[in-house]
Amino acid sequence: MKILIMAAGSHGDVAPYTGLGAHLRAAGHAVALAAPEAFGGLVAAGGLEFRPLSADPRGGTGGLTGGATGGGSLLGKAAAFIDRLGDGLADAAAPGADLLLLSTTTAPLGWHLAEAMNVPSLGVYLQPTLPTGEFPPVVGGTRSFGRWGNRAAGAIGQRVVDRLHADAARRLRTRLGLPPLPQSAQRRARERGNWRVLHGFSPVLVPRPADWRSGLEVVGTWWPHVAPDYQLPGEVEDFLRAGPAPVFIGFGSTAGGEGERLGALAAEALRRAGVRGVVQAGWAGLAVDGDDVLTVGEIPHAHLFPRMAAVAHHAGAGTSAAALRAGVPSIPIPVTADQPFWAARLARLGAATDPVPYGELTAERLTESIRRAVEERTFRARAETAAGELAREDGAARVAEAVGLSWA
């Protein structure tokens, strides 16, 4: 079967689909992954056909990430990103496919492509975005409004998403030769048909909400592809062997332009806590010099995190899961979007210190959190327990089963 996975956004929005795609390819399918141009190498390394999307996730015109802000700024960036995404998705779909696998960010437009191509589609989401009474919308804070209020807020959030996609969907349907259809009507049709969505996170972090409709499943995490023969760079391996386990500090694809400030803050906190550190440059461009600190670029979390004493991170979905998988304590520093949600989930599990919102981050607070994560054994014990549960899950295999059923 020819499968086209569509994913758009930052590194964390794309990397998990390389592992999912590699699993499906090993199962005998021909798999292509449509993603922003910046991730061509990442996709090719997984042995998948790459179909580029022109929308740039790093910021600027049509960008999605950029600085460490949220609220209206986040909505504005999303609108600009979506405006460019429709044509890119249509171009990526032009070579054809027998099945579309649509991420959270591509599904609202991907539904129209599936209709025009007359092929089945499945949702493969990294976030629990469908309304539920059990928690508030994952983007917009962690304050619960009660069961009724949470569901109502979730429904409002869906309407906001539909409005953001309305113009792009209208242009896309015209290009595809489809009759006019409001975005909200397309969503309602999918809901009435119990359109199947497989959620790629662990029920250890988010159990399946009891009030979700049929067709919404939590299948377990699918992990970014890493070559079987991968080894850490020699410089990294030498540093790790030269002393006690260090503390990782990184902000992934967030906090753009904040590298100098964050680097100085990280260096001071590591020094005050009396620990060694591995600082990941990320899109912020962090860089720290010193005998007890090593600055690194992109390194697979699966190989790096198990060697850490603790992991201070932005609480993206993939990084949060990777820290749990490694069985190490987290120090969540959520920046924007769904990150406060995952930070709260880690803390609720007991595998993380209390979240430190990015806007409140200081060297003093980071020092305190590092000391707690390293010295209080409860955090590691809870993380190790969660790691054992994650090891028994196989989210990619669950997707492969669903693919077989959808084609049958």
Keywords, please?
single chain, 408 residues, Rossmann fold, 7-stranded parallel β-sheet, 5-stranded parallel β-sheet, 12% strand
Structure description:
The protein is of the alpha/beta class. The protein has 2 domains: 2-221 and 394-407, Rossmann fold; 234-391, 3-Layer(aba) Sandwich (Rossmann fold), CATH 3.40.50. Helices cover 45% and strands 12% of the residues. It has helices at 11-26, 40-45, 72-93, 107-117, 146-176, 183-192, 234-241, 259-273, 301-304, 317-326, 339-349, 363-375, 377-391, 395-407; strands at residues 2-6, 30-36, 49-53, 99-102, 121-125, 197-199, 216-218, 247-249, 277-280, 293-296, 310-313, 330-332. The longest helix has 31 residues, at 146-176. The radius of gyration is 21 Å and the shape is globular. The termini are close together.
Radius of gyration: 21 Å
Order of helices and strands: EHEHEHEHEHHEEHEHEEHEHEHHHH
CATH topology of the largest domain: Rossmann fold
Annotation, overall tally of beta strands: 12
Overall geometric form: globular
Topology:
Layout: E1 2-6, H1 11-26, E2 30-36, H2 40-45, E3 49-53, H3 72-93, E4 99-102, H4 107-117, E5 121-125, H5 146-176, H6 183-192, E6 197-199, E7 216-218, H7 234-241, E8 247-249, H8 259-273, E9 277-280, E10 293-296, H9 301-304, E11 310-313, H10 317-326, E12 330-332, H11 339-349, H12 363-375, H13 377-391, H14 395-407
Parallel strand pairs: 1-2, 1-4, 2-3, 4-5, 5-6, 6-7, 8-9, 8-11, 9-10, 11-12
Q: How do you describe this structure in short?
A:
By secondary structure, the protein is α/β, with parallel strands linked by helices.
